[in-house]
Amino acid sequence: MPPTNHKIALVTGANGGLGTSITKALLNAGIHVVGMSRKIQQTDFDHPSFTALPAEISADGSRSVVSDIVGRFGKLDMVVHTVGGFAGGQTIAETDDTTFQRMMDLNLNSAFYILRAALPAMRKTGGGRIVAIGSRAALEPGVGVGAYSASKAALVSLIRTVALENKDVGITANVILPGTMDTPANRIALPGADISKWVQPSNVAALVAWLVSDAGKDLNGAVIPVYGNDV
Fold first, then answer.
1. d(CA 202, CA 159)
2. Which of 3, 150, 164, 165 qualifies as a FRET site for 111, CA 20 to 30 Å off?
3. How far apart (Å, rounded) are the C-alpha atoms in residues 96 and 138?
4. CA-to-CA distance for 29 and 173, rounded, in angstroms?
5. Is residue 187 classed as helix, strand or coil in its secondary structure?
């Protein structure tokens, strides 16, 4: 059990390409991190302030996760939502129902479920921080990525609405829009790309750590572009 003055953060996708960097940054900042993912283990992070919580992000699963956190630690101060997915290569006219719905499930519905479950607990705590990871495509859609772009644009609207609805209790909600990030998955998917233009996950993680800190309390409802050298 962490000391009562420790902040409790839920990080979704905590052992993913970006989630790993974010989890480490928050742990280094003295925050107790509950890492949520389908497949996550306590041994993924060798740190006394880390708690692994294997779970699915669904309506019921999200409620169960938040209930578990509040039951163990008595509160929830922060949510950092990194879960998402990408599909592309088809025009809107060619996009099938399954692909479109999968993008909405991964990039929008997952955030909705976790925030709907978390906000009552955070409001009871009396403040808190929410950070979601979006995409540059939310503001700059391109050919062949319509379903992905639409889902990420909807995520921006969701987070900005959460910011407005919860500022009365001191909860901030912001969304970061990275360009292509230098993750193992992207290196495999995009061989031959100019990696020097990509965004380093550690830089996004440092921004997240700042946003959830006391120094970030005055930033709310912000849509923050992080494009690296590809501008």
1. 23
2. 3
3. 20
4. 19
5. helix
**Domains of the chain, CATH where assigned:** 8-226 (3.40.50.720)
Instruction: Write the DSSP assignment of 26-52 as a string of letters.
Output: HHHTT-EEEEEESS--GGGS--TTEEE
Dihedral in degrees, nearest 10, Cα atoms 209, 212, 217, 221: 100
* pLDDT over 90 percentage in the chain: 87
Report percent pLDDT > 70 for the chain: 97
**Contact (Cβ atoms closer than 8 angstroms) between residue 188 and residue 220:** no
- Ramachandran region, residue 24 (left: φ > 0; alpha: ψ -120 to 50; beta: rest): alpha
At 92, list the tokens.
């809107």
Measured CA angle at 62 (ends 107, 24), to 5 deg:
70
d(C-alpha 58, C-alpha 178), whole Å? 25
pTM more than 0.85:
yes
Cα 117 from Cα 188, distance rounded (Å)? 35
- Look over the chain and give the mean of its residue pLDDT values, rounded to a whole number: 95
Radius of gyration, CA atoms only, the chain: 17
CA atoms within 13 A on the CB side of 220: 18
